[in-house]
Amino acid sequence: AQRWLRRNSVCFYNTSACRITSAFGQSSLHQPSILSGSGSRYGDVKTNNLLNPSNPLLITSHAYSTRGGKRPRVPQMRDLQSVEEVIITAYEYLDDMSRRDISAVWARIALLMTKRQPKQRGKSSHNTGKLSFDDMEHMMHKIFNDTVNGIEDCGAREITEATLGMAKIVTILLQQGKRRGEDSSRVILRRLLLSNDMKPNRELFKHFANASVRKLDQFNSRDLSNLAYAYALIDYVPEFDDGSDLFDHIAMNAVDIHRKFNAQDISNMTWAYATLDIPHAVLFEALGDQVVASKHSKDFNPQAISNTAWAYAKVGIDHPELFEKLANHIVKTDSLNQFFPQALSNIVWAYATARVHHPKLFQKVADAAIQRVREFSNSQHVANLLWANAAMGIVDKQLFLSFVPTAAKLINTYNNQDLANIAWAYAVAGVDAPTLFNDHFINKCVEKEDGFETEALSQLHQWHLWQTKEESNPGLPIDLQERCFNAFISDEPTVSKLQDDVVAQLSHIGLDPKEEVLLGSGYRIDVLVEVNGKTIGVEVDGPHHFIGKGRSPLARTILKRRQVPPIDGIELVSVPYWNWDKLGKDQAKKQEYLRHLLSLKSDR
């Protein structure tokens, strides 16, 4: 009886009421019509041809009946090689399919949509022929409604597989857009899974979220991570009436079983939260501890390593032990040939963003990138790779020289931030590249002028200084120069207690210190003093001038130290925080330290 109901309870889309209704009562799912327009064929689909027993597209269940009255065994979705074949098979076996079988339909469709559909060869389980649009629509609606109406009866794996399959299909449809002459299955999938404004059908995925949250305690680590991954793909965080959201509940359940998470689970889970900008500290801490505790670093494939490092850096979660373990694993790997360019780029971007100093890692990635420079065809991957090395003050001349032709070839594909990152990275590295930074590059900056944010304009200012003052090369046109300069000087200076103390001691030794002096280059000097007729800039370098907790200066510190003396004619000296901290509260020692630094004679 249940099979008969599933097969024959045709659902109707009531566009005026914006609800999905069933011939046997109102569904709990309330959503806008997912069929475009008001003339849905679903309730009155012309099925005479489809239901005709002589139609070669159909092989009825009677034709498959076996002796003893047993129902046929449902074909494995993984054995089907086209979307059309999956749809026909699922429709024909719908009353014999388990919930797991039905969820597998959506996973298989998603996978096949990313592949080139093969021509039918030899015998197939169905003579697929050429389905009319009406036939295909009827079949797909039947499968879709069976999935939606039965989601509450699904277990954790089935809910996750159906949700993830549909989310992947949505992603594919959005990435590829509408195509002329596309298959009818794509047109129908777009109507089913996207709303009228061509965004994911949130009411549909909210329905799945409601079914999920009631059973999350039954989800294992793989189910939880895949569920989070699915909703991150469609950029949707379902919220519930009590003010919580799906990701609150996923995190709580994941923390409880975090010791059962493997490398792929951790990668998918952290990537999902980072993609949605959800910095759940407790979850990230627990999963990071799991990575550190694991004795099987080899379980982390290149993509898992890249995604995990990227996720922690993206949400700003500090977990030094995790970064150290992942970096050591990469360094010990014999070859990075299995790491795609995107993975190599994301890894160093993550370490630079998190300010984790690991020179051996950067060298390993740089060597691999140099060997495989021709594989880098994505502008963002190139820009991030070079920016990361520069940001960490790691200047591998060979790396920057090797990427000049590739970076130049991709100029037309750079976005604003990529242009600024490339320019700034080469400025930090001090690697002259006239074939990259030519009129075409400058014209591209002018063309995109209105899209640069303040940080990018500041980067271009430093590049302009390098080009015009250090290398005597052409720079930016005057209007863009002024915008960049104004952006560069726009940050309000802040004075630390460390700087206050240094200034006080400079006064005690008879100098007249001036603070936060703006120079012609646009740089601000912490303290300016006159010593024996010479102007000297005193830079009070606190912890934020260095990488992590180490003593390696950040790129911005390196660039300032290099550019100010030749451009502004001012000698710079540095007071690093660790030297000052060693002097404690002994003012005499502090004053003697400053006299020695500035080559002043001691009063003693």
Structure description:
This protein has 604 residues and is an alpha+beta fold. It has 28 helices and seven strands. It has helices at residues 2-8, 48-51, 61-64, 83-92, 99-113, 133-149, 156-176, 184-193, 202-213, 221-233, 246-256, 263-275, 281-293, 302-315, 320-332, 341-353, 359-371, 379-391, 397-402, 404-409, 416-429, 439-447, 454-470, 478-488, 497-508, 555-568, 577-582, 587-597; strands at residues 11-14, 19-22, 25-26, 514-518, 524-531, 534-541, 571-576. Strands 4-5-6-7 form a four-stranded mixed sheet, sandwiched between helices. Strands 1-2-3 form a three-stranded antiparallel sheet, covered by helices on one side. Helix 10 (221-233) runs parallel beside helix 12.
Gist?
The chain is α+β, with helices and mostly antiparallel strands.
Map the helices and strands.
Elements: H1 2-8, E1 11-14, E2 19-22, E3 25-26, H2 48-51, H3 61-64, H4 83-92, H5 99-113, H6 133-149, H7 156-176, H8 184-193, H9 202-213, H10 221-233, H11 246-256, H12 263-275, H13 281-293, H14 302-315, H15 320-332, H16 341-353, H17 359-371, H18 379-391, H19 397-402, H20 404-409, H21 416-429, H22 439-447, H23 454-470, H24 478-488, H25 497-508, E4 514-518, E5 524-531, E6 534-541, H26 555-568, E7 571-576, H27 577-582, H28 587-597
Parallel strand pairs: 6-7
Antiparallel strand pairs: 1-2, 2-3, 4-5, 5-6
